[in-house]
Write a structure and sequence with these properties.
Elements: H1 13-36, E1 41-43, E2 49-51, H2 52-68, H3 73-79, H4 84-96, H5 98-109, H6 115-125, H7 141-156, H8 160-166, H9 172-183, E3 189-191, H10 198-209, E4 227-229, E5 232-238, E6 247-252, E7 258-263, H11 277-289, E8 298-302, E9 307-311, H12 324-330, H13 332-336, E10 339-341, E11 350-352, H14 366-371, E12 375-377, E13 383-385, H15 403-408
Antiparallel strand pairs: 1-2, 3-8, 4-5, 5-6, 6-7, 7-9, 8-9, 10-13, 11-12
Helix pairs in contact: 2-3, 2-4, 3-5, 5-7, 8-11
Length: 411
């Protein structure tokens, strides 16, 4: 098996040292300047000073764009035309204010596909070497504001899916605790069971399919007899063709409803581990809640059963040797959601996007994807989530497991 992998968590040594030196120099200059500044002036990087009245005027313009132009906060901020130093000071002022920073960060989070453009605009508007978005710098102003934002979103969340719509890399312990807090039980679930199946029937179906699971994946296909549950007959097809412990079954209801059921052994249930079904469902909840056209739509996950439901996708496999670069080119909406594929082992997990896939026609720019013959991924448990606007907050998040994590377990 040939595997290409990347470790996206590491900045190049040269780039990191350069940014740290710039930030440290800037911080020293700013600290020294502030001691000498008359009251009413504030220092910014490289010793530039901006009069408080100037900041107030820019802030007034910023709020006018929000309230009168009805522009989201991020678009209003980027519309401000001023010097780089003044723009830096305005951005810092906003980030230091709890209410203003929440509004700004929330407007960024609501447009994940535009984050790369926002970052480019900031790079053009901020002074060279500005450390605002260098979250690895101690006491980074943006990370501090983002932490407060996440604290509030977590506290006010009404569902786990609401949190996973923000980002997919929440810790298992955090999600389980929040679920207990919201629902007052330990029956952790994501999404909703389709009406044609319902909870009771789903549990019975999963128990029935356990009789046909192949834990070591020694069998490629096998016949599964139909089963009748509460007067409803379901038929099955066994789809598994891979090297992990997730078994994949097609299920067909009496009305022609077609879904995919994924089941993994109960002793291997996890929301954090590499290859775990729960980890996959966290990631797929993020993608589906953000209407990703390059990913199979997720429906439901039951942690106690370690089983999930997906919409069935009519498909033609991308059955050829592929590279990471080809994957990147053919799943652009997946990439635009700040996700990166980091291995090529599962090349059978990519299908051609076409106009027969009615279950995903409501996804973002579906018809454009069909026109370009893009791909759909159906197994996203070796990916990276990364954007400067969403730094990892240790008490809530951790890096998603990737290919190298899987290999290290066998070393």
């Amino acid at each position: 098996m040939e595997v290409q992998s990347v470790n996206s968590n590491i900045y190049t040594k040269k780039r990191t040292q350069s940014n740290i030196i710039k930030a440290q120099n800037a911080a020293s200059i700013t600290a020294a300047s502030n001691k000498l500044m008359p009251r009413g002036l504030c220092a910014v990087h490289f010793g530039h000073s901006i009069n408080t009245s100037s900041i107030e005027k820019l802030l007034k313009d910023y709020k006018w764009f929000i309230n009168n132009d009805r522009r989201p906060a991020i678009h209003s901020l980027l519309k401000i035309e001023t010097s780089k130093e003044a723009f830096d000071s305005l951005t810092r002022y906003i980030l230091k204010n709890d209410e203003l920073s929440y509004e700004l960060i929330d407007s960024i989070i609501k447009e994940p596909r535009n984050m790369k453009y926002f970052l480019k605009d900031f790079e053009e508007k901020l002074p060279y070497g500005s450390d605002i978005f260098l979250s690895f710098i101690p006491n980074n102003i943006y990370k501090q504001a983002y932490t407060k934002y996440i604290d509030k979103r977590f506290e006010n969340a009404k569902s786990i899916s609401e949190l996973l719509e923000i980002r997919p890399d929440w810790k298992e312990e955090v999600l389980l605790a929040k679920h207990r807090d919201i629902y007052r039980n330990s029956d952790f679930e994501l999404g909703h069971v389709p009406e044609t199946i319902n909870h009771g029937k789903f549990e019975a179906i999963v128990k029935y399919l356990h009789n046909y699971m192949d834990i070591n994946l020694n069998k490629k296909y096998q016949e599964i007899p139909p089963v009748t549950i509460d007067g409803t007959t379901f038929t099955f097809k066994y789809f598994t063709d891979g090297k992990t412990d997730k078994n994949v079954f097609g299920i067909l209801g009496p009305g022609g409803e077609h879904f995919i059921i994924k089941i993994a052994p109960l002793e291997r249930k996890s929301l954090d581990d590499s290859c775990a079904l729960g980890t996959l469902c966290k990631i797929d909840t993020y993608l589906t809640r953000n209407y990703c056209r390059n990913s199979a739509p997720f429906r439901y996950y039951n942690h106690n059963l370690n089983a999930s439901i997906y919409d069935f996708i009519e498909h033609r496999k991308v059955d050829k040797k592929i590279t990471l670069e080809e994957i990147k080119e053919n799943i652009p909406d997946f990439i635009d959601l700040n996700m990166k594929y980091n291995d090529t082992a599962g090349r059978n997990n990519f299908f051609i996007l076409d106009n027969t896939q009615h279950r995903i026609q409501g996804m973002n720019d579906y018809h454009y994807g069909v026109e370009k013959s893009e791909w759909i991924t159906v197994d996203n448990d070796h990916v990276v989530f990364e954007t400067r606007f969403q730094p990892i907050i240790d008490k809530y998040h951790h890096i998603l497991p990737n290919t190298m994590d899987l290999f290290c377990k066998f070393l």
